[in-house]
Amino acid sequence: MSDEQPKRRVFCVRNHVSKSSDEHLQCPYCFGKKREVIEGGERQDFCDYNPDNDPVTFGFPEDSSRNARG
Known about the structure:
The chain is α+β, with helices and mostly antiparallel strands. It contains three helices and two strands; from the N terminus they run ββααα. A two-stranded antiparallel sheet has the order 1-2. The longest helix has 6 residues, at about 35-40. The radius of gyration is 13 Å and the shape is globular.
């Protein structure tokens, strides 16, 4: 039996899916560096993404594996 707590999934405004806090920690728009902030805070506490101004992708081809990772 594992002592590790299951990671809570948090909605990603950029990709419109729920992601684990570990995935948010890897996002270029997420500045939250602690899992607790991402899992328990408000989006503005850990995410800089602005859907009106920021790109979802960074110029890579849509079918590239980089985009598949979101």
